[in-house]
Structures are given as C-alpha cells and as structure tokens.
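3.2 Worked example (two chains)
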Amino acid sequence: MDRFKQVNDTLGHQAGDLLLKHVAEVFRKELTENAFISRIGGDEFILLLPLTEHSKKDLQALAQNLIEKINVPIMLKGKLTQIGCSIGISIFPDNEFNDFHTLISYADQALYASKEAGKNRVTFYSKFD
C-alpha cells in the first residue's frame, strides 16, 4: 500500500487498522476463491494465484483492477482518505527458481521497482531488469 504510513501518522493507528481491513476486503471481493491472500507485514500483502488460471495478460489486468479499487477514496475518522497500491509479480516457473522464498524475493524486487517508477504500478519480475 502506498501512503499507508502517512495515514497512520496523521489519523492514528486505529485508522490504519481500518484501512488494512478495507484493503483486505477489496482483495477478497476481487479475487477468485483459489487465491491465497495474507498480510505479511506493515503495509504489504501477498497474493498467490494458480498460474493455470491466469495468463500474464490476465494478471496484468487483475493487478490494474486491484490498483483502481484500492485508489478509490474512503472515509476514515471523518476524513476522505486516498491511498495507492504498487504491485510486484513473480511467476513460477518463469524465473528459474524452485523455492517459495525466491518466488517471494523476486516479487518483492518487482514491488520496489513499481514504487521507484512512481507508485500505483504493476511490475513483473525479470532477471534482465
């Protein structure tokens, strides 16, 4: 989530908790029941999807949809609040690895590339980037 720290700092941790619940609900509504969703820390979530159900083009469209839904302003503690969402995607078996930790590491690298490119973006991990 982009600007999550700003919400916590200006509106308090209770507002931040409400925001986390809101984002989790957006994910729950927008993803298939075969998706695994978990918050892995602070403002980061992990989504695992079976690739057999999603082509790279489908994943791009799904990620853009999630960004759009999360960008919709919501009321928190009486204030209209808007955050953003940056997404990093790593695909197994596309990236020459065979363990979960590497999959997550590559997704994390792609996430930070999205944030560095201006946030509210989707980046696929590539060993050539």
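3.2.1 Second chain
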Amino acid sequence: MAQLTVEQLFYYPVKSLHGVEVDAVTLDDFGPAGDRRWMLVDEDGRFVTQREQPRLAQVHAALRDGVLTLSIPGQEAPVPVMAGEDERRVLVWRDWVKARLAKPGPAELLSDWLGLRVALAYMPESSIRPVDRNYVSEERRVSFVDGFPFLITHTASLAALSERIGEPVDMRRFRPNIVVSGGDAFDEDGWAALHRDGLSLDLVKPCSRCLMTTVHPDEGVRSDSLQPLRELGRFRRTPDGVLFGVNAVHSGPATIRVGDTFEVALREDH
C-alpha cells in the first residue's frame, strides 16, 4: 500500500469564516473537535456562507479552552461568543437542526459590518444531525459541515491544478481539514481508506466544488476570472459535479498531527 504524510491540518470554528491552521486535531463524534459547531443564519434560520457573502473570509474565529472569539473588521479587540438558552431550528442545506442562539452582542456587530441581519447558532451535544445515509451505512452524526466530518485534499493534485492555471493556487480555497502528500496527482480518485494504528478514515465520496473556491481566503473577494473553479471544470467535471478532494468519516476518537503517516487502501476498481 502507498503511504501518505499529513502536511497541514485545519478546522473552522464557525462555518464559512476564516479557517484555523493547527499542528494537531483531536477527533470526537462530530469529526475534528470544534469544527463548525457554530454557524451564521439569516432571519429565516437559513445558513449564510461565503457563497453569498464572500467577505466572511475576513472574519477570524478562534477557539481556546472552549471559548469562541471573533475578530471582526473594525473592532479593536476579539469579541467573545457564548451560547445562550434560546433555541431555534436552523437550516443547513436540507437539514433542519436544533441549535442554541448566541447571547446578544457578537451577532449584532457582525450584522452591522456585513449589512445583513444574522444570528450565531451553536449545535449542542444534544442535537443530532445524521450523515448522509446514501454514502455511510452506519448511524453517524455531523456538525454544520456541508455533509461529512472530513475533507481531505492532496498536494500533488493542487500542484497539477496550479500548473494548468499558470500560477500557484492556495489550498485554503478548498477549505480542507487534512492535507496530505504522497503519490501522483488525483490518486485520491482511487483511495478507499487511510489507515494508521488506532484510526481509519473511510473515503466515502469525492467532493464537488462550488463558487466558494473562487473567494480569496484572506481578502474575502471573488476572483474575476472565477479561478480555480473554471480550470477545474475543464478537466474534473463529472455527473456528480466539479471534483477536488475527498470526503471522509472516521472510526473513532483519536489525534492527528502534522507529520503523521497513513497507509492507503485502494478501491477494488483500481
């Protein structure tokens, strides 16, 4: 079996805000601990993302000792966010999920800066959002992620895409959790699982990409050229969408660190 090395790790305390690069992630029932347990919603309870509001990339979220803070442009200091007792159902894609709204303050500041009335919603332990049973047979839960606990991307694939475009593409545009190296570009099409002692990551489906990949991960502005999505569409378009990276579920609690190695199990058709 081929071997892969973990090059980068990311998690996203608030869905669609700026990501956090770390040296290690601890895994819990949801996936990477603290990943997308918070989400912005509009007045109808529907999720708000960089797809409609690319400027959200400018808002930095930090999670330290269980306390979430937001660094909002125009605010002199990070703003602490605490879940209140008010509950409401919120919508992420097709899933209505029970959530707790943040105590007053941070959402109002965000709304003023964004020019859109938003609230901050937290997914408590008691809220169960099941993973897509079309791809995972056992009962598993997820946070406010798009669909699966992990997105894994491959450095060789990014290098091949960058070469086609003619300039470097920032991996952060794809908002991965785990970035690995080893092997050739788009080898991940044939991966079935990644294994190491005490942990398996089952790769359940390729990830179809959207307009968010065209948003600069620091500046929060959309590329006029619609890259890298436009180039991906030229050679990675399938009936399931324009593909880059693979979604995964995990076998149980563990810690993953930069520099860890995984063995690759290939799909039977490869």
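3.3 Remarks
The chain has three helices and 18 strands.
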